[in-house]
Amino acid sequence: MTTNSQPRDWLAWHDDYDRAGTPLAVRLAVVQSHVRQALDAAPPGTIRVVSICAGQGRDLVEVVATHERRDDVSAVLVEADERNVLSATRRISELGLDRGIRPILGDASVTDRYVGHTPAHLVLACGIFGNIGEDDIHNTIRHLPSFCSTGATVLWTRHRRPPDLTPTVRRWFGDAGFEEIAFAGLTHLPYIGVGAVRWPGANGALPTGTRLFNSLG
Ligand SMILES: C[S@@+](CC[C@H](N)C(=O)[O-])C[C@H]1O[C@@H](n2cnc3c(N)ncnc32)[C@H](O)[C@@H]1O
User: What is the b/e burial string over 129-142, where b = at least 16 CB atoms within 10 angstroms of the residue's CB?
Assistant: First the structure.
């Protein structure tokens, strides 16, 4: 997790979420609207959610708090920075969601972290694809079906700075068997590329000991 040998400050990374009109704040609103739609469409019963590299979990937590299915949500937020885990834990507690949303401090890049939490109805892979190599993005996408229940939604993000990789990412999702629900690519905000895809296949079987990606840079 380094950039030019300086460790990336993943706590400070979230600050723009609180600055109205920043690309990150716009992106958050787009992701949250897809989270809401996924919860709206979820089948009766427990709604399993997995967030990979969850950060402070803002995309999920704030939506669940006001959603009529809030008591059905069973989510794990896997995050490596303990400051973000603490922030998420505090907010989850403030909102009375402790029973349904569990932050886990750990490495989200290995499938073992998700054992017992899949197949999920909603998988969040946000803030990852802009920070890992192309091979790792492709590898992660190839493994995402194993996280999904039939009809699951996967949300992903990737900036659109040249060379814009989002067309390739969308193709890789298609190659892996996903159907695109929506893609928001706002060209005037090159930070923004938000994709939503649906898994139409059978419930996935999560392998153990499988690496999705190397460290985020
Ligand atoms: C760009 S932020 C995205 C956070 C969140 N998904 C969002 O979109 O708001 C990337 C997050 O991944 C976390 N991270 C980096 N490497 C990780 C790893 N191997 N396992 C779990 N989390 C990791 C960072 O601490 C950071 O909070």
Answer: bbbbeeebbbbbbe
Q: Where are the domains of the chain?
A: 2-198
Q: Model pTM greater than 0.90?
A: yes
192 lines ligand 1 (CB under 6 A): no
Residue 102 belongs to what H/E stretch?
A: strand 101-105
Residue-wise pLDDT tens digits, 33-67: 999 999 999 999 999 999 999 999 999 999 999 99
70 CA to centre of ligand 1 in angstroms: 24
Query: Is the CB of 136 inside a 6 Å radius of any atom of ligand 1?
Result: no
Nearest one of 32, 59, 60, 62 to 47, comparing CA atoms: 60
| CATH number of this structure's domain 2-198 | 3.40.50.150
DSSP string, 44-63: SS-EEEEEET-TT-HHHHHH
Nearest atom in ligand 1 to the alpha carbon of residue 27 is 8
